[in-house]
Amino acid sequence: MGLASLLFIGLSGMSLAEPNDDPKIDEPCEGMCLRNGEMIPLQNAGFPMGVPVEVLFSGHGFAILGNDSHILRLKVEAIMPLEPGQIKGLLASNKSLEEIRDDIRAKEGEKTNRGSMILDRSIYPLINIAVASGNNATALKADLADLSQPSPANDTAILGNISMIISPSDGGMIGKGELCIEQGPLAATYSLLIDMEPPRHGQNKMMIRR
What gap in Å lies between CA 124 and CA 195, rounded to an integer? Predict the structure, then answer.
């Protein structure tokens, strides 16, 4: 059942940061929205679909604009790309769980990153994710995808960008940086302060417990 659920997640094509706990949200929002406790999916063509391998970054904190602060949550994970047909084929096969695990692991080396950000009640997919480490810190940069606007040549429209430096602080990890949103009611340039969860590299490999 655990593996079946994992493969089903892969069919969604987009892993999201933790949503707001309020199940009654029903307000206009940018990106992807929560309405009456349900996710409103927008076209996600061109985004990688696959099975989550490991969580690279996950945290929550604030986007600060003047004297105002907005709740922000962030998640970036590594995935093993699989086409919907491949995932459905694995689910429909008569293979054992171990055989399915082996088939997925055989694709090792083809991992890619995908992520999402929530600002207040608005959810934004992250694309063009870049990570660089050095001097006991990690730089994370990504663009915010605008799935609501059609773009020529099947290119994804860019709504803004996020950049931050993640470094040790008081026994934990803190992300500091900047968020720029260029369009919509939340358009502004924010300062970021994010409490990052401990890294999970190598833990729960393939997110399957033996």
Answer: 19
This prediction has a pTM of: 0.69
Question: What is the C-alpha to C-alpha distance for residues 90 and 106, in angstroms, rounded to an integer?
Answer: 14
> pLDDT digit string (tens) for 47-88?
567 777 788 999 999 999 999 999 999 999 988 777 777 777
Spatial separation of the C-alpha atoms in residues 109 and 94, rounded to whole Å = 26
* Interatomic CA distance for residues 46 and 138, integer angstroms: 27
Task: Please give the DSSP secondary-structure letter assigned to residue 58.
Answer: E
**Do 198 and 55 meet the contact criterion of CB atoms below 8 Å apart?**
no
Q: Return the ∠ at Cα 124 (arms to 88 and 72), rounded to 5°.
A: 120
Q: Tokens 């860019």 correspond to what residue?
A: 158
Please give the DSSP secondary-structure letter assigned to residue 31: B
Q: Exposed/middle/buried for 87, CB within 10 Å: 0-12, 13-18, 19+?
A: buried
Q: Is it the case that residue 95 has pLDDT exceeding 50? A: yes
Q: How far apart are CA 206 and CA 117, in angstroms?
A: 23
Token pair 């969604």: residue: 12
| Structure tokens, 123 | 């959810």
No. of helices (H) and no. of strands (E), the chain = 3, 10
